[in-house]
Amino acid sequence: MDAARELLLELGDQDKLTVRAVTARAGVSPNALYLHFADREELLSVLIISSYQELRTFLRAAVPEDAAPIEQLRALARAYLDFAARRPGLYRVLFMTRLREGVPMPTPGAPVRGLDEGVDTFNDLLAIVTACLPPGGPDPFTQAACLWAGLHGYAALRLTISAFPWPGEHDYVERMIEAYVASSAIASRSA
Q1: What is the 3-state secondary structure (H, E, C) of 120-183?
Q2: What are phi and psi of 13, to 5 degrees?
């Protein structure tokens, strides 16, 4: 798994990942892979699922269940950026390489549960954003997707252009929450 993750990061595209390359990197014969996985596709599936599980576990551990939704959102957003900084290789594999087509995706207004750890991770964010927004306010799915894109952009750019004088994480998280969640809740209360 580690050899496959390293190669996927180097190659940037799962279509270029071969059984021979993975087993050579791991220092075993090509047949050894088949003792653990049916084929390359199963290896990739297990690799991606376990990587998303690691991300989701990290994020969930950072979010206090008994906190107000806005505090949960702050904790999740900060943890997301922290994960990208602590696990840059894994973050790049998950979000900065081309992965398989056909991976389940959430549908606006109807989250899909249990099909994919990546979808469930997004749905965790969506649930918190939904709890933060007023009834009848902006679409929670759109707000969660925009918030995630903003966090990802910051994390990805910080990994690839580290010399740039990026704003501090806490300030950035507050600005993202203000832009996509807090201002909507405040506007709704004053209307």
Answers
A1: HHHHHHHHHHHHHCCCCCCCHHHHHHHHHHHHHHHHHHHHHCCCCCCCCHHHHHHHHHHHHHHH
A2: -155, 125
**107 bridge partner residues:** 110
Q: 92-135: per-residue pLDDT in tens?
A: 878 876 665 555 555 555 544 444 677 889 999 999 999 999 98
Tokens in use for 13? 């595209």
DSSP string, 50-82: HHHHHHHHHHHHHS-TTS-HHHHHHHHHHHHHH
How do residues 37-61 score in pLDDT, each as one tens digit?
888 888 887 888 888 889 999 999 9
Q: What is the per-residue DSSP string for 5-21?
A: HHHHHHHSBGGG--HHH
Adjacent-strand bridge partners of 40: none
Distance CA 94, CA 57 (A): 15
Find, among 76, 62, 186, the residue nearest to 133 by Cα: 186
**Which of 77, 75, 56 shows the shortest CA–CA distance to 144?**
77
Tell me the three state secondary structure of residue 110.
strand
CA 147 to chain centre: 12
Residues 71 and 26: beta-carbon distance below 8 Å:
no
